[in-house]
Task: inverse folding
């Protein structure tokens, strides 16, 4: 639907096919991680993202919700924050993109906070180590920089992936217009309380309120200390 | 409910009748596109919009949600973005409007982003070609300009429709006060994540979480590359 | 919970009793309008408001949702906008308020837009005629002014009710701190799409989407003209 | 998930265990207040928070919803505002925190309004007396100050608890980066209408609307006075 960026029909179809392929590929990758349960649980699941196609690369963003676990006491607590997943992949010709070379960068709630509070002349930089919890720590380094474009007309998002094993350093840059950044800012502000799990705390409380029991953390609880 | 703009009773009634008629007309048009299924599915459906009546024309805005399709694998993905639909129609006398001459302009998510990030002295312009995907491409050109009014008291929304076949050029202009623009900005910011489909990604995830399977795109998934 | 404004216990209790009484009184008034059906339908209904108690008067705000009507075709359309209802009532002694002298002022969506976009040194004024649609038009005039306090530390909300029949002119003024105004602004921004009915358009669309019929207003509909 | 602050694995685990313990402790405390009903009602309940770990102390925030009570007439009204609960607890070594020494500070809606409207060079201060409604009034004084850090790079949150009985004065200070404050601001803005109960007013109205009775507070109700 990138009418602004002037896609022609055939081009849009290429992109669409690419995305369709992506989607299956992505689904497959999830399957790898989730074993046989995915096939079943994907029935009825929904995917939606926001994608920006530019001359040298494309950028896609979508929300990933937090994960709750049920304790032995029967209540559930957030085990892992959600994220806003960013995917970059390079152009390999005029209006052709190579999804196979995609690179992921998962924004934590605090990184999303940094993004949504970015002033027109501010920039921010995040560093991730995908192997942080393994023996391979430090071998791959990712950094994402978001810096203002000239004349405050938007931003440049620059993802750099340095791989010490393959001695490669991939750089993917996507220009984000002011309007596109407003979409990201608005969507990320909307989604932030959801990746923090606060909407689920709120949703479930309401269901228990019709019950006449006093079982919630009492505001005056503060006073008891 | 445009008390601010001082409608009298009779006038408001004219408008109401016009809108009632519109609604049936609109419904009918949808039927044309959707065949016999509409009659049935319209039961229980809801319509709401925000309308600004001014001296020379009226402007109506309402959200249209994205469309998801179900894949053969059983999950569903957004097939088409939602939009914020703008409808302009001209005044044909004091407080009388001709709905038959209405013109549509569907704002994509990025165009909505442009609208909600508009500073008090900013302006924006969008170009649409309704025949873009057909042999008639270029014969009708629509452009929407939103530009600040004098003294930053609001904006002018100007829709121009140039038709090379009928050699006509219709222009419809509606002054939007600062308060009315705040309504549009707030409502469009609210609706943006919904026309992007992000609320549906979020809503359905929550339902699958009570299940003890690990079937979601894992934040650490980023690390696996 | 107005800890900031320093209520003592007994005072808070007075206020609570007053509000309890109010609530029943209000409920009763609604009954008058809604006949016997209210008694039944109030079961399970919920009331919540935000109230500011100040030296000379109190101000309460709460949302009132729009009203949809079902057409003969089976779909429903918004018949009447929702509002943010403001209620002012005077103090009649130290920390005592006379709810019987309450005055209502219902903010339309556009007036809410004016409120939420108010800059720190802006002011706004709204005029309502409660008898606008009757022979008594012009006999009672209400005006609400919201103007910045000295030093941009907040606003004064001033309600004036001029009654030509009783030759009275009541004025009720409540100082709103910057923090209290932030609550009103945030809550009103939140509630605006709801009093416009947009959340209901969005909510119901999602339910119809699992159906494999193409029955929604198509974004490309714009192109068909 | 505090990648930004550079936690190593073992450290993160310490924190996690601490939080797990916290959670049970917290749960237990709730049980004390809520007697036997909690055990049952906690099944299916959800907990989520946002936590900032810094060198000298940690700060956790989570929403607590308002409490509604059912009146004899069958409708329910908000009896007690929700809050945003802040919990501070001290570090007791490098990356070790003592949850046993936690201090609570419950932000009312107006205090949340103060927080979300804080400009980059503004500060605010709140005073709470946990014994305000008892004979022990004045013996414990809590104050929370949020003041800008040098160079507008964020804020310092400073909680002071003065206990006249034990002659102690505990001070807990947490530096909040600009990004972390954006998370708090966004999450608190999101949650504000919910702790005010406005979302519940809105949610329940929608359910009663399909009924063809006119039983809602009418906007024109204002005119009737």
Result:
């Amino acid at each position: 639907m990138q009418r602004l960026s002037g896609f022609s029909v055939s081009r849009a179809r290429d992109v669409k096919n690419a995305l369709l392929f992506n989607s299956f590929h992505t689904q497959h990758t999830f399957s790898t991680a989730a074993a046989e349960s995915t096939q079943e649980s994907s029935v009825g699941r929904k995917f939606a993202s926001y994608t920006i196609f530019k001359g040298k690369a494309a950028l896609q963003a979508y929300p990933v919700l937090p994960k709750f676990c049920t304790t032995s006491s029967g209540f559930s607590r957030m085990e892992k924050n959600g994220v806003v997943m960013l995917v970059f992949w390079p152009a390999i010709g005029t209006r052709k993109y190579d999804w196979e070379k995609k690179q992921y960068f998962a924004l934590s709630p605090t990184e999303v906070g940094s993004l949504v509070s970015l002033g027109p002349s501010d920039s921010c930089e995040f560093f991730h180590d995908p192997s942080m919890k393994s023996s391979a720590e430090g071998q791959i380094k990712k950094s994402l920089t978001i810096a203002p474009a000239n004349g405050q007309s938007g931003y440049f998002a620059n993802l750099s992936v340095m791989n010490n094993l393959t001695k490669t350093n991939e750089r993917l840059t996507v220009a984000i217009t002011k309007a596109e950044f407003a979409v990201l800012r608005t969507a990320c502000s909307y989604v932030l309380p959801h990746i923090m799990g606060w909407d689920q705390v709120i949703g479930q409380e309401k269901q228990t309120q019709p019950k006449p029991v006093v079982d919630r953390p009492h505001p005056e609880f503060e006073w008891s200390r």
About this structure: The domain at 46-209 of chain C is CATH 2.30.31.10 (Transcriptional Co-activator pc4; Chain A). Chain C has a mean pLDDT of 77. The helical segments of chain C are 9-34, 37-41, 109-116, 178-195, 198-208.
